[in-house]
Amino acid sequence: MERIVSSKIFRRFLISYLIILIIPMVAGFISYQVSIDTAEKYSIINSKQVLNQSKRILEQNLDEMDRFVLQLSLDKDLNSILNKNASEKNNIVSLLRQLDNKISPYATTNEFVEDFYIYSKNSDLIIIPGSVYYRPYHFYENNYYVDMSLSDWEEMILNNKRQIIPSRPYMHDDTPTNVITYIQPLPMNDVSNHKGSIIIPIENQKLNNLIKEVEKQFNGWAFILDENHQLITSNGIDKTEIDALKERVINKEGPLYVNNETLLITETSEKNDWLYVAGIPQKTLIQEAAPIKYITWTVTGITFVIGIVIALFFAYRNSRPINNVIKTLKEYAEPDSKNDYDFLHGNISKLISTNTDLQMQLTEQKPLIKDAFLKQLLSGEITERTTNLHEFAKQANVSLSSNHGYVAIIKVEGYEDMSSSEIYQELHAIRIVIQQESMKICDKFYVTNIHSDKLVYIFLEQEVGKAFKEKIENMFTSLQSLLQEEYRVLLKIGLGHPFHSLSGISRSYNEAKQAIDFANFSYEKKGMYWYDNVMKETAVFHYPLEYEFRLLKSLKEGDFIEAEEITYELLDENIEKRSLSVDMHEQFIYELKGTFYKALDQYIFRNDNTGEVIRQKLRVITIEESMEQIERRLIEVIQLYCAFVNENRKETNHSIVKTIEDYILQHYSNAELTIYMIAEHLSRPEKYISQIFKEETGEYLYEYLEKVRMEEAMRLLTNSSKTINDIAELVGYNSAHSFRRAFKRIHNMTPNQFRKTIE
């Protein structure tokens, strides 16, 4: 054996096999590089999603502040106070009391506006929820900017134009903090006639809470710059470092690296041109590739070791006969393969174990899919008109055999201002207990959580009547008593109107939220609050952002029924159920018209007369008209809009089908022609063009391609003397055999038989 191993022939065989073994090593290196690039790509995507989510939440809060300021500026009591002189201070006590009753709830329901105050220039008053300062400097003694004198404060804050002032050090009741300042002069419609201001100091910590997820999830940092590139807030990075990075992030698009160690990701707000910047350490980007790296190099190493054993074996086996001819082999011993078998056996067991772990991980994902499906139901993203609705429901393990029921929200009392890992664990345990005890009483519901201290119940039933309502009430009553007696946990429950369609779930959920919001101000320690029975706020109109998003979505999709239903819901809530003032009524109609104007910004309306017709119909809608006239005009606008969208979509579909047919007629002879190639030509997804073609023509795309090829084949068989092989190649088949088989399947005869019938 030693003589064979040392022979030249053996070495040549071995070198050949070792050269082949270089391939898996190269493949391992390429796989490793791909894994690093893929991990970085998805980490960038995840970090951009986190940054976008923070931006979206902050913009929503700013929108809520704008709406709050707009509604407050229209208040008659406030405008009366603004018009009073300093000599009339003692005569406006009743007005101040009425105004305080209106503004106090805002300070407790929205953390961004909890420290707001109103300055009346003529009467020289500072008004805050629950109190009034008859001298501004009295208010300034307890609430002042560290780097700003009293006169500077009066000039830059009380009497300044509308703006948001970047972060400044601030003292609030002897507590140092940093705030950004939102300033809105009054009245809003007359800048030259300044009568006062609404000022909202917002603590930096509240903004930091929105961007701290970048530090928590990616061990990175984040900061926000305003439209003038002044620092709004930051998390995980100091101002000196931010100043050094400003030039690199301003006017830069896409991610870039700093010192090859930190990835900078920027997002610019379309609303106010604020710049959101996040820095992600490179080690965080590649840590997701660590398992792939380990598996890649492990498999590559194993492959290399096995390859060497096999190379030695085959080199030995193939060189042995030749060496036997030249020399006499005196000793021969087979290589010991027992260890190799044990090695393979161990790795196969490891692969089986890994596969089992993957199956367990997939099983663990099912509750997350179910939870996401329920949240989409609550937000109104899923309705009866959703494509493949029941397939989605089946994947989420949700039965939609009924579309009637109620939505309820359970709130665990006593945890509003508490946050720690122990509190979260305790709340998690309480939620589990609530769900388990609920299942013992009633099993016709689905449940998900919206906050750590809130659970949302969706009850589904074939018929919603008094008996089912009493059953729900009895269930929650029993649940409240059980949790209080055995666990000393107090629950408050808010319930909405019954829904009779899947699209009504979102409406019932919003009503339950309003009921639970009312419960938060109730002095009762526990209770059950039906939406119909609670005291609803009638001073402001009802138009949540989710309703606007749903209306825009239904208009964009041309869904007339959904858009009409949402409009009726909003009109019923604001006109029939609320006692709105004339100003609020007008503002509601203005906001609703604004939504339709937003929908008209789509590119398909920009060069079409239909858009101008719709705008004209919107312009003539005024508060002076009766409610029936306003409702009729809105429905006409929806009909025109949806009809145009559907017609435009139909024309687009016709154009796409014509393009597909022309492309097939030009390229049917290409044997490599596939649906993927057609989709690439149209720059559309394969599933999309297949579905459009089937809807427009009634036949599948591959059937049409085969029909075109067969028609051309019949023409060639009839009018030419070409062979079957030539015809098969000309009409796009890889072989004559596959052509004959397809021809016989369609025409029930072979090509030769068809040619004979023609002859």
TrEMBL record:
InterPro entries: CdaR_GGDEF (IPR041522), Homeodomain-like_sf (IPR009057), HTH_AraC (IPR018060), HTH_AraC-typ_CS (IPR018062), Tscrpt_reg_AraC-type_HTH (IPR020449). Pfam families: GGDEF_2, HTH_18. The chain crosses the membrane at residues 12-32, 294-316. Residues 658-757 form the HTH araC/xylS-type domain. PROSITE patterns: HTH_ARAC_FAMILY_1, HTH_ARAC_FAMILY_2. GO terms for molecular function: DNA-binding transcription factor activity; sequence-specific DNA binding. The keyword Cytoplasm does not apply. Keywords: DNA-binding, Membrane, Transcription, Transcription regulation, Transmembrane, Transmembrane helix. PANTHER family: ARAC-FAMILY TRANSCRIPTIONAL REGULATOR, HTH-TYPE TRANSCRIPTIONAL ACTIVATOR RHAS. This is AraC-type DNA-binding protein.
